[in-house]
């Protein structure tokens, strides 16, 4: 195990502990302008601002944005930092001009520590917590409404695809049966349904996996990421770097496949006799394998345990 590291002043906060911070700083070291698409409490942005970079931060959560602006108020006053409310999957609606380009773009996907630790936000399976899970006001429904209205077939697919749940059909059927008697309202309702299917030995890892799947569906996270990837690529300056931290296998798979395709000279079908595509790679993948947190970081921040960081550089 490597020696324990401490964060420089200003890099750790009560709102959010940035994951894989040193690795992100290294990957974006040559950037002058950075787009932080998932600003959260501003942990990553604070470190990049300390290095003299100009940062634009975007977040769909108004409370996260307010916390980050308070933390980074001096940088905002000087013009080095600006904060935009919106979803990174639709940056024009957040007020970002179509022509704006950045030397570095960062996504730290998933839920922030503060969102998860606040029971009122409904991301947790703590007893009595509401089934909400909305990251921002742009989500169409909360978790309770989703679970109370989704078709059984679609719910089964959600649990199978987002939670890798082998008993997805049985669990979907159990949720539909229970909601017919009483609508789901709190975390207890979903936990009880999970236990009814997986048995009394089911515990926190099972609950976390199922709750994460519901959260992904509520916030349209995978579809949003898939839409966003080519748009973010096109916002890079020549030689610019896109760095993405994923916590879910589906997210990581989308990122890996996109980076792989962009890094190939030819993307034509194998049997095509003459190349009819672009014929040149759009850039290069910087991480042959995803970067993960060291043991000492996981000891300080358990959220880093499942983090996987990949990076790609646009051709010059």
Tell me what you see in this structure.
The protein has 316 residues and is of the alpha/beta class. The protein folds into two domains: 21-114 and 221-314, Vaccinia Virus protein VP39 (Rossmann fold, 3-Layer(aba) Sandwich), CATH 3.40.50; 140-218, Orthogonal Bundle (DNA polymerase, domain 1), CATH 1.10.150.170. Helices cover 41% and strands 14% of the residues. The protein has helices at 21-27, 43-50, 62-71, 73-78, 113-117, 143-149, 152-163, 168-181, 187-198, 204-218, 221-233, 249-262, 295-300; strands at residues 33-36, 54-59, 81-85, 102-108, 236-246, 283-285, 308-314. Strand 1, helix 2 (43-50) and strand 2 (54-59) form a beta-alpha-beta unit.
By CATH's scheme, which homologous superfamily of the largest domain applies?
A: Vaccinia Virus protein VP39
**CATH fold field value of the largest domain:** Rossmann fold
Q: Report on the biggest sheet.
A: 7 strands, mixed
Mean pLDDT: 90
Structural classification: alpha/beta
The backbone outline, from C-alpha atoms, is globular
Computed CA radius of gyration, to the nearest angstrom = 21 Å
Q: Strand content of the residues, in percent?
A: 5-15%
CATH architecture term of the largest domain? 3-Layer(aba) Sandwich
Strand order of the largest sheet: 3-2-1-4-5-7-6
State the domain count: 2
Give the CATH class of the largest domain: Alpha Beta
């Amino acid at each position: 195990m490597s020696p324990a590291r401490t964060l420089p002043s200003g890099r750790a906060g009560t709102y959010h502990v940035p994951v894989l911070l040193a690795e992100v700083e290294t990957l974006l070291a040559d950037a002058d302008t950075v787009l932080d698409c998932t600003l959260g409490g501003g942990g990553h942005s604070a470190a990049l601002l300390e290095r003299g970079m100009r940062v634009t931060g975007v977040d769909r959560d108004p409370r996260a944005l307010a916390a980050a602006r308070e933390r980074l108020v001096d940088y905002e006053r000087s013009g080095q930092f600006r904060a935009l409310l919106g979803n990174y999957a639709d940056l024009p609606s957040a007020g970002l001009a179509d022509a704006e380009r950045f030397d570095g773009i960062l996504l730290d996907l998933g839920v922030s520590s503060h969102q998860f630790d606040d029971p009122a936000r409904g991301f947790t399976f703590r007893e009595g917590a509401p089934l909400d899970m909305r990251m921002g006001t742009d989500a169409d429904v909360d978790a309770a409404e989703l679970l109370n209205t989704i078709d059984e077939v679609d719910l089964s697919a959600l649990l199978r695809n987002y939670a890798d749940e082998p008993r997805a059909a049985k669990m979907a059927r159990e949720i539909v049966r229970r909601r017919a008697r009483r609508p789901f309202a709190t975390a207890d309702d979903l936990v009880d349904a999970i236990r009814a299917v997986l048995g009394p030995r089911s515990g926190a890892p099972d609950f976390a996996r199922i709750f994460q799947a519901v959260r992904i569906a509520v916030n349209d996270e995978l579809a949003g990421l898939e839409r966003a990837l080519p748009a973010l690529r096109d916002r890079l300056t020549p030689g610019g770097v896109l760095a993405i931290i994923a916590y879910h296998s589906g997210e990581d798979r989308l990122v890996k496949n996109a980076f792989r395709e962009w890094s190939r000279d030819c993307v034509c079908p194998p049997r095509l006799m003459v190349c009819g595509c672009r014929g040149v790679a759009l850039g290069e993948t910087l991480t042959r394998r995803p970067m993960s947190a060291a043991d000492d970081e996981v000891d300080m921040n358990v959220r880093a345990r499942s983090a996987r960081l990949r990076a790609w550089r646009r051709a010059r």
